[in-house]
Model the fold of this input.
Amino acid sequence: MATSIQKAKRLLTKMTLDEKIGQMVQFGRIKLNEKNLVREGKIGSFLNSRNVALVNEVQRIAMEQSRLKIPLLIGSDIIHGYVSTFPIPVAEACSWNLDLIESSAKHAMTEAAADGIRWNFAPMVDIARDPRWGRIAEGAGEDPYLGAQIAKARVRGFQAKGKNGYPLAAACAKHFVAYGGAEGGRDYNTVDMSEHVLRTTYLPPFKAAVDEGVMSFMSSFNDILSVPSSANDFSLRQVLKGEWRFDGFVVSDWESIEEVIAHGIADDRTSSALAGLKSGVDMDMHSGVYHDHLKELVIKDKKLELLIDDSVLRILKIKYDLGLFEHPYTDPNLRDEVILNKETVEMTLKMARESIVLLKNEALLPLSKEQKIALIGPFGDDPHTPIGCWGAEGNHKNTVTVKMAFENAGLDFVIAQGCDSIDPKVEWIQEAVDLASHQDIIILTLGERQDMSGENNNRAFLDLPGAQLELLRALKKLNKPIITLLFNGRPMTIPETVEKSDALLAVWHLGLSSGTAITEILFGDVNPSGKLVTTFPKTVGQIPLYYNHKRTGRPKFRRYIDCDEEPLFHFGFGLSYSNFIYDKLIMKKSRLGKKDKLEFTIDVYNDSDIDGQEIVQVYYRDLLAQVTRPVKELCAFEKANFKAHQLKTLSFSIPISQFGYYDPEMNFIIEKGNFALWVGPSSIEGIASEFTIR
Done:
């Protein structure tokens, strides 16, 4: 039986130049006036068409009325759910639960595939260390190792097998590369970093996606090493298609090939098309420069058709891998079966539960359901914000708000908005204070609306918007316990909020089961288990602030005269209603060869009457190297379940390659030497040990 690439090669021999170029062209939403282009084989893909009837109609034209009957590939951004919205990706990452994250991705793609979407512009695997950048909400945080593991999980979920035995969709690792390193946290901005930082920090999640079999990549808007990504031969041809032997295809981000003109790399649309083709961008998203100019470029230089052939082979191979030639149409009845079905909605709740991070608890939580509650703040009855950025087909009518969940639980509570989420007016504050004065406890909802994070939603200040802090200050004067729920799409600078709150939870934008998950955590039906994947700064002046920073020549000196250098909350931090005790870190052997594995056990004891989950984190430091290395790096983790008063001995086995690095000549090496090791509940706590690579 012929392989996908063999089938693609046979088909390529039958194609005209126009038909080849057509496979490299992606248009936007399906329009009636583009049907003739489909018949002529001049369009290979559409995006953001989420109507199964329309998708089937245009697919039928491609399959029955075009000369070669090549199916269309329909793509869309399914970032954290389709109709059933899951927590935003940075929140999901805080679960550190790879199985759950994979399942979330599979459920999301199952829904989307029912509308004919067979290509997902996700996962976003950009490392992000600047919370001013709005798209930090879409990724897995600041750590390359954790980011790589989550990238693999999401690729597995999006590309899981459907009922027909083929992948539900082609996943797309984006944005290649270093998009999260934009200067000043300003979306689309320039990126200035060394190749060493690029390879050490920003490339690992993308390499992990390739290793997991991701079918496509998306180039980014930014420049890298002073060349725009969509014209960057180094990143696309040398690294991705060369070193990594990636056999899928690359699509540009929205019109980013044409935008190399604005970068000053090309002087017109024709030269921008040439730059994109030569650099290795296989498909043009929406700008039309390939559609309009590739043919004239080939007429002038016949050798360019070899590059076109390579791109088309890659695209056709993926269409064969997806089974689109055998199964081009989508059953219109499938939608009723999978959209918002019981299993998927339950999965949104499971994911939301483990995404919540308990940041402070002065022996206040969990609450008793007998207490009289004041639910105050702009997000208590807001069904829109929990959907988060990139909500796809998520509908606020499906959202369970905190108010709704309180009602469902039969709680004794009153509710007041207190202030708007962004407007600085304070007229509503006194009403909220008066209402809260008669209650036992205050649950205060603060944070960001869903449209304050995501693409091009960057912030210069990360404080609570509007009059939210004034509301907190007024309520604090009542001398009643305050539990703050932080609805956030990024780390925020909230030191006063932490100080004035008796308990604080990062509840992010959790999707349609938001209110239910929050309520279960507040009242102890579920024990919080999330831990941060991004550092929370005290002030924007500390940014960039991340745990795995380099060592310096004068580490004992303070960095600022007006603020200490410590974050508000560290990477890996998160509290539980349980109390976990770490003990007895035992190495199988501490002197290792380069082909060995670092093997050890650690005892963890749940010293409480409450069942719980603990994320056991393993960090190391290379004590001597040819280049400066981080003070600490995550190299393994395990999320384990514990019964009350249960002792578990957890085993770890880490390949020695995990401790390698890039030398000054950009060679990946595993060097002899001594290493420090820590095992504990966060990046700043743990039992220490050492090992040696001989």
